[in-house]
Amino acid sequence: MRYCIDNGLHRQATNLPPTLDEGRKQIFWTAYMLERSVARTMGRPHSISDRDIDVPLPANIDDEPDTDEAIIAAIAQSNQHPSQITALTPAIRIFRLQQIDSKISHTVCRVDRDVSVIKPHKVARLRQALEEWKAGIPQTDPENKPHPHLTTDYHMIQYHKAIILLNLSFLPTLTPQNPTFHEIVHSAGQVCFLSKRLHDQQTYISFSLLSLHANFVAGLVMVYCFCLDSSIFSPEFSSSVRACSTMLYIISERWPKAVQARKPFDRLITATIESDDETNNGLLRSEDNLHVSRDGFQPGFAADDPGHLEVWNSFESILRDNQIDLGTWMHDSIFNTMGTSQPMD
Question: 92 with 56: CB under 8 angstroms?
Fold first, then answer.
């Protein structure tokens, strides 16, 4: 990204040949997508503000045109048929979603402002932008076995990840009676379920650091919400949790360091969802027979009530050396917490 900025690729250029102009756009927005994704995953700030970017997205054309005349003709055809699917369609869709995610990070995921002061209409506007993006997802025929990045499942994974990003900062303040509480549980489950289904259908899709992060955070959200309200358990919820565990196992098979995320998640599952301790309704039980008082626990408590902190204290006991900070967990990189920031081989 620094190279792109140094060479002015973030600014709209004029009087450039179409081949050079489109090439610059493709390079910048690819770097933008990677930089935003990695920064969000690693808990780091963005290297450039969206307010300093005015270069348009690349044209929705195939890679074959390699002359100025051919690119001009391809752009004209794309303008006449905006819904056409080309080699660049998946990338352009993700570029647009990354722009929305960037606005979410700037508006909601802030360390200098408490979530209580965020204006509801700003959150509603971001949610509307996500719904509009979802409505434009290209519909593909599963029988044709398209490339994974062209499938509806892949796009829906990105959508649900964005829903989690939008709502995650508010989760410690939500009660189980709040519709947003159940929405984030559903999106977390869909991230894991759809990831596993995409893996089952497409044997050649790769699994990256970003995929590990998305599935681990989604799994953590499901366990956390279950500890607040065990009534969310259902066959669908159970399938989603199993899908998360499966995905973490698959990724750790390809990247041994990822086992440091898989094992703590397995411990959480054993101590919460799979627990058969009738004295606490199967909510919280560590492998070391951790005894946690449930006195005064009522579903729907606020974030600063003892029950809410109790969940986190129990999480920390289960995770042992892998501590989670209640105030910053939605901002911090999960890999800094789990110690898995080494790259894949």
Answer: no
Q: Is the dihedral of CA 35, 38, 42, 43 positive or negative?
A: positive
Output the CA torsion sign for 276, 279, 281, 287: negative
Cα–Cα distance, 90 to 95 (Å, whole number): 9
Alpha-helical (H) ranges within 136-256 are 152-168, 179-201, 209-228, 235-254
The token pair that represents 252 in the structure block = 């750790």
d(CA 71, CA 17): 10
- Residues 6 or more apart from 337 whose CB is under 8 A from it? 322, 323, 324, 329
- Is it the case that residue 332 has pLDDT exceeding 80? no
- Which of 318, 330, 323, 311 lies closest to 227, judged by CA? 311
pLDDT tens for each residue of 195-241: 999 888 875 666 788 889 999 999 999 999 998 898 999 999 999 99
Cβ neighbours, 10 Å, residue 271: 25
Please report, as a single letter, which amino acid is at residue 189: G
Q: Specify the 3-state DSSP secondary structure of 338.
A: helix
Is residue 214 within 8 Å of 187, Cβ to Cβ? Answer: no
Q: Are 283 and 227 in contact (CB under 8 A)?
A: yes
Helices (H) and strands (E) in the chain, counts: 12, 0
Q: What is the pTM of this model?
A: 0.82
